Amino acid sequence: MTDALLRRLRPSQVRELITVLLIIVIVVFFATQIDNYLSGRTFNRITTEFPIIAVVAVGQLLVVLTRNLDLSVGSQVAMVAWSTGWIATQMPEINPILLLAIAMGMGVIMGGINGFIVAYGRVPAMITTLATLAIYRSFLITIANAQSIETRGLPDWIVHFPGTTLFEYGKIDIRLIFVIALIVVAVVQLLLTFLPYARRLYAIGSNPDAARMVGLPKQRDVFLAYLGCGALAGLGGLMQMAKFGTITVDSARGLEMAVIAAVVVGGANIFGGSGSAIGVMLGAVLIAVLDLSLARWIGISDFARDFLLGALILLAVAGDVVINKRLQKVWLRARRRDEARAAPHGVTAGGGDG
Amino acid sequence: MDSAPTLTQRIATRLRSWEGLLLLILLVVVVLNTVFAPNYLFGDLGNQNQVNLWWIGIEKAIVVLAMAFVIINGEIDLSVASVMGLSAVVVAILWEQGVAIEIGILVALLVGLAIGLFNGFWVAIVGLPSLVVTLAGLIGIRGLAFMLIEGRSVGNGETAFPTWFEDMGQQPVSDLMGFLGSIPFIDRAPFALFLYFGLLLLAGVVLGRSGFGRRNYVIGSNKDVALYSGVGVVRHKMTIMVISSVIAALAGVLLASHLGAVRGSTAFGWELDIITIVLLGGVSIFGGSGTMLGVFLSTMLVLNIRNGLGLSNVPGHTQTGVVGLLLILSVLLPNMMESYRGWARRRSLARAARASRDGPLPRS
What we know:
A: mainly alpha; two-stranded antiparallel ribbon; globular; B: mainly alpha; 15 helices
């Protein structure tokens, strides 16, 4: 019975289900530990906490699918956050849409530089983005000239952004920042499922040589994946600026590790070829739930969060290996059974003992 | 059979290699530094600057040696900086609790061993990607360090480290052993510098001249082939991960004595610098190639660039940016030259083909 069910599921769906279950288990556990845990306030905090990581991580997923990596997203986010903050301080009347376009445009430029060097310069992604991680940050520190962006200089709509609420159900707010993340995830998930270009990303990631042999424009596709990653990092940068208001040149340092953690916990293969936007978002949600709940839990040191996050990442990858092995076994058994059934009468079903 | 290449031929091949290029860049940097950076070689500081240049990055340089083995082996260890931090924190916390510093050092090294075995278990035995396992380590081990020390700084005031421990990291060895005081450079070198050159020699011999080193390359260039050829892949990878963590723990102890005070954020983010130096040294990120000479030259190159720029009042983040740019160019330029050669060859072939087609004797 479970076999029949498991057979219909792809590994990524099993992973998504498990991540959802894990989130539920964690929430139920903390509901017994923390007073007033299941409240609108908890929901609101979590849904303002995870969107930035989720948006940047979905961009990272595009690159990871092609068996590449972008370590420079933290620097990209900081660059965009500071620059858009500076622009908004100088021109408080600026149209939000224009500011969004500038943010994503800056991200596209930085992602484009990475993508160009990786795809056309054939420099390994790890080397390229390790270097641009340093270069973008050092460029930001140079242009910022030790100035920080401060909340009091920003226009009102940015200052109120973190609390901007679209609907309310009792104490539960559906906030703009949450809706933005949901839209980004939904759009990318639809594109990944239906757009031929996006299907090619999976093909390139599962076997780059084969993808080249069958004539896929591998270089161009990888380049475009980096552009997409940059655009979403740009959006993440604008969200970072609007959420925190105060942006120093050290903003978002180390964000790349949190983002990659969300990608891995969300079930994407770090060596490309598999992963979904929904999974990555669930990964970001899981990390945010754990992070915020532990911060409120009396029983544990505030500093234990990173330790548990590390353990969670390890658990996620180890779990992937187990799930994949199990599913493969199920599929193999099912295929044998099908073959035995399809075989003409009189021939005994071979391998039925498997 | 050709006779063995002569010495000049061998030197010529070496100079055309990656190491030759690094040496050339290093020479250019040294000349530029001597001309433009005040006190680099001449001046009030004398040879003190040449020692300082090493001293400031010596803990990173030590970890670079182990990281070279890891990357040549086709793996990566992102957790080294967190291990350095944890090991420094362990020494400090035990000292604060009244445990002798020698015991603290021993415990810190054992912690390094335990982390190495843990990483090795997941990477070598279970077969998970080291990128993810050590990313988990990077985050988790840093968390552990913060759990132990929380927001405090240990090693100052009431909790000051014993004098000999601080002297080890902060004073030249020659103060302790008088006879070294007459040799320039060495007269001002700290203990960690001697240790580094000892380890460098050891690493160079092991990688280039021993069976362990050969296996490191073989496994790094193709794990499956190595496995089917009867090379003990699991055991080797386990050893490599253990060496990496133990060396990082050792560097953490040295860092604690060098800084004289330890925080939870000690050595935060250093893994990127360390990996950059290894890759700049010509070690392939995909494993299987690279030499200790290249790694040594790139260590020297990075230290000299940072020192020269620092003396010229260029801020630290710009130095990091310059090193990053150099890292990209070091791979990009050879790739572009190769592409250009391929394009030129194809063009000349095409021209030759056109000439023969348009020639007086058409092919049948």
